[in-house]
Specification:
The model has no long low-confidence stretch (mean pLDDT 86). The protein contains nine helices and five strands, in the order αβαβαββαβααααα. The longest helix is centred in the last third of the chain and has 12 residues. It is 41% helix and 15% strand.
Length: 213
């Protein structure tokens, strides 16, 4: 709910990716299956979905997928050691590469998992964009723009651990380097707005803090 507006995801499926026939989808780092279930609701009949993650998240995903039992399967595996002989029409990964020490290895796995004319879809963000986008009513905006300065931490993560804080910006170039063609970039239209008049305000605030630290 914090990443997608349903109408925008529908627009991507039908107007940008132009998925008109049934497809086999593999979801790298599927988490609790949230994206997979939204995806399946929009895909043509006969489409299949395979999610990959650790045992904890796969258990959560199975609980989420009770209404989509047909054509849904899961693989318990870390992404680096994943081996699959099947070729899929679409490989997708949502906000996972930013946490990977070797993102190029994961991208290569995604490319290897799709058919020759398949789609490789990555949903990522530049963490500077994420920080600059914060606004809290009543707080000085100039302060907000400078208060979340994690550049030193991000540089250390990149230099010593390989995690790339700006991977959302660099992804098109990584994909080109790995030999993909027809690379396209889109910016999501989702904005999270929370205010005290909302009925579920306390829940929204709790989730906002959890997601943004």
């Amino acid at each position: 709910m914090y990443i997608w507006n349903d109408d925008y995801l529908k627009f991507l499926v039908h107007n940008v990716w132009k998925i008109e026939n049934s497809v086999d989808v593999i979801d790298f780092r599927c988490g609790d299956g949230y994206l997979g279930m939204k995806f399946l609701d929009l895909l043509p009949e006969g489409s299949t979905y395979t999610g990959i993650d650790n045992e904890h998240y796969i258990d959560e995903a199975r609980n989420q997928c009770t209404n989509h039992a047909d054509g849904v399967s899961f693989i318990v595996s870390d992404l680096y050691s994943l081996n699959t002989s099947k070729k899929y029409d679409i490989a997708i990964l949502q906000v996972g590469l930013r946490h990977m020490n070797k993102p190029m290895d994961i991208l290569s796995k995604m490319i290897d998992s799709v058919k020759e004319d398949g789609l490789v879809i990555c949903i990522e963000i530049n963490r500077e964009f994420e920080n600059v986008g914060f606004y809290f009513d009543g707080m000085n905006y100039e302060y907000l723009c400078t208060a979340f300065d994690f550049h030193k931490l991000w540089r250390k993560e990149l230099e010593f651990e390989g995690r790339d804080y700006a991977i959302g910006m660099r992804l098109p170039f990584y994909l080109q380097h790995l030999g993909l063609r027809d690379i396209d970039v889109r910016m999501d239209d989702k904005v999270v707005y929370v205010n005290p008049s909302m009925e579920d305000y306390e829940e929204q605030i709790r989730d906002f803090k959890l997601i943004n630290g």
